[in-house]
Amino acid sequence: MKKKKIAFKMFLKKGNAEEYFRRHAEIWPALKSLLSYHGISNYSIFLDDDGETLFAYQEVDRVGSQELALQKIVQQWWAYMADIMLCNPDNSPITVPLSKIFYME
Question: For this structure, is 24 an active site residue?
């Protein structure tokens, strides 16, 4: 099965870039395992020069990755990050999907 390439933006609350980096440097191993189990790989997050906009890229090879939002550890991570990110009422980060315009292999 061919992997689907997904890119999206997320947003930090002003002045929280350092804390965001710190928390991701200590990302929970169980969360990483769950992401891998659900077919997510090549997951990268970049910070824009504005210090508030995050650009995320991931490849997904399993259709059931939408189930992640229902997982307790994902919800706990969202709650852990909610004080430094712009979030939806359920603590999930506000995301804006990006359209692929160009790809070079």
Answer: yes
